[in-house]
Specification:
With about 375 residues, this protein is mainly α. The protein is built from 17 helices and no strands. The chain is globular and about 60 Å long.
Length: about 375
């Protein structure tokens, strides 16, 4: 679907009155696949060497004592989540362009659930086999986890990282209902970004929990920055789109510093700002075409591994660390390397034998054949 006229902005090469800016040719952006894996590895290092808690029991000692140099960098690894959010804003805008609401719904369900269900079963099985690492949830809690709605239900999570999936789901719903429903265009995306930014700022003075759950002020600037960067990639640079990116970066660095540095006094606020800046800059480089040199075909595999790797690396990695390091006596560094590589291999197996065969089948099964999309207006 072509974009409608972006009356809110001046584009670099002004189009004829009443027409949309001419989109650039769209090719697969392999660099994004690489960036996604980088973000996942950042989070992985945080969970293995940058935090205490359960992983300390697996290492039989605090990671900052076991990896005194690595831990100083790994403590910032959880900012890979915010990196993911910037990439997600870019990718969701790109993948939803020209699609109906039904197409968007089916693609998200088929993308998220097969690997997620496999990860639930694997982590639950591991927790039953070795409850000293993570205790298994009750059956009713496991069943709720299958829906991916355990967070708002107040149910114990099987996967520690799945709180980010709840954030992503809320972003999908907002974007779907306010933009995709009527068709993704430049103008609608810009309006969505501006209104969401204003709502996120106003939420800071609100004590309404429901409003904050919907608007997500702590995450919104990252998604919005990604949306605007995709507009720049598709239509070229313009002042309004870059203004949205700049506003998003200014708000994002504040949210990151306030929400993620404050509880961790060992983190340097300047490093936090630098990481947020690099996340925006990396996606901006892709948007501007500066990363076209990253055309290695293996980056496709890297992108495919990212989601299943992200799902299984935390708890299953802690199990592997405990078995290799405490059980078998393998030294710390070989244990770390073997665990990361093992989780990547497991991610490939999930992608190959769960996502690839069952994702397309699930997508086809969700196709509602009897509904007249012209009369419903939803495009199912």
């Amino acid at each position: 679907m072509a974009a409608s006229s972006p009356a809110l902005a001046t584009v670099p090469a002004p189009p004829a009155p009443g027409t949309a800016p001419a989109p650039r040719p769209q090719n697969r952006l392999l660099a994004l696949d690489g960036l996604r894996l980088v973000a996942a590895l950042m989070v992985c290092l945080y969970h293995y060497a940058g935090r205490g808690g359960t992983v300390s029991a697996s290492w039989h000692g605090n990671p900052d004592h076991i990896f005194p140099t690595l831990s100083r960098a790994a403590v910032y690894g959880n900012f890979g989540v915010q990196f993911f959010f910037v990439i997600s804003g870019f990718v969701i805008c790109m993948s939803s362009w020209g699609r109906t609401l039904g197409d968007f719904f089916r693609s998200r369900v088929a993308r998220l659930y097969p690997a997620y269900w496999v990860a639930l079963v694997l982590v639950t099985g591991a927790s039953l086999a070795l409850p000293a690492v993570v205790h298994a949830v009750r059956l009713d809690e496991f069943l709720v986890n299958l829906t991916m709605l355990q967070q708002p239900m107040g149910t114990t999570r099987v996967l520690g990282v799945c709180w980010t999936l709840w954030v992503e789901v809320r972003f999908y719903v907002l974007f779907a209902l306010l933009v995709v429903l009527r068709g993704v265009t430049y103008r609608r995306t810009v309006l969505f970004a501006c209104v969401w930014t204003l709502a996120a700022v106003l939420c800071h003075s609100s004590r309404d929990d429901l409003l904050n759950q919907v608007v997500m002020p702590e995450c919104a600037p990252f998604f919005i920055g990604g949306l605007a960067l995709y507009l720049i990639h598709r239509f070229g640079s313009d002042l309004l789109a870059w203004g949205i990116v700049a506003m998003s970066w200014l708000l994002a660095q504040r949210e990151a510093t306030l929400g993620l540095w404050g509880p961790h006094p060992h983190r340097n606020p300047y490093v936090v700002i630098l990481i947020v800046t690099l996340a925006f800059a990396a996606v901006a480089a892709v948007a501007l075409g500066w990363a076209q040199w990253a055309s290695w075909r293996h980056l496709v595999t890297a992108g495919a591994l990212t989601y299943p790797f992200y799902l299984v690396h935390e708890h299953l990695g802690w199990f592997v660390i405990r078995v290799l390091h405490r059980g078998l006596g393998l030294p710390a560094w070989p244990t770390l390397v073997v665990t990361v590589l093992g989780m990547l291999v497991l991610a490939w197996l999930i992608h190959r034998y769960a996502e690839k065969p069952f994702g397309p089948r699930l997508k086809r099964a969700l196709k509602v054949r009897k509904l007249d999309s012209r009369s419903s207006g939803l495009g199912f």
